[in-house]
TrEMBL record:
Highest taxon in the source lineage: Bacteria
UniProt cross-references to SUPFAM superfamilies, sorted A to Z: Uracil-DNA glycosylase-like
Designated name of the protein: DNA glycosylase
């Protein structure tokens, strides 16, 4: 069954950096409703703590999502994923098991936020994941 991305792009006015991921994990692995919502096995937000010398107080639920949005707004960072809709071909959260992909319009986001000067892709670019990157 096709799955639609549950989060809208987060792109505060004045954002100068755009972080682009792939697609969120299965719902049972999400600790909050925002990008990189799984605290088990994903180090994204731990890395952000080091990058911005910031210690998150919340790791679950709405407070965690709002805390992360506030940090990214303060730091002029936008975040989205490249996939809008797909099918999980193996019933797990691995990027290599995403099929029948519909891409998000990342170009429109960049046009709407002309201050963005840097784009960071968080997914691997080897093997099957490269097929996703080369199509955006």
């Amino acid at each position: 069954m096709s799955e639609t991305h549950p989060f809208k792009p987060f792109a505060p006015r004045g954002a100068t950096t755009l972080i682009i991921g792939t697609f969120p994990p299965l719902v049972q692995y999400r600790d909050f409703k925002f990008y990189y919502p799984n605290n088990t096995g994903n180090r994204f937000w731990i890395i952000m703590e080091y990058v911005f010398n910031y210690k998150f107080q919340y790791w679950k639920d709405d407070a965690a999502a709002e805390e992360r949005k506030a940090l990214f707004k303060k730091e002029h960072i936008a975040i989205t994923d490249m996939i809008e809709k797909c099918i999980r071909t193996n019933g797990n959260s691995s990027d290599k098991n995403l099929g029948e992909i519909e891409f998000r319009n990342v170009y429109k986001l960049l046009k709407d936020r002309p201050a963005i000067q840097k784009v960071i892709l968080t997914s691997r670019t080897d093997g099957d994941s490269w097929q996703i990157h080369k199509n955006i």
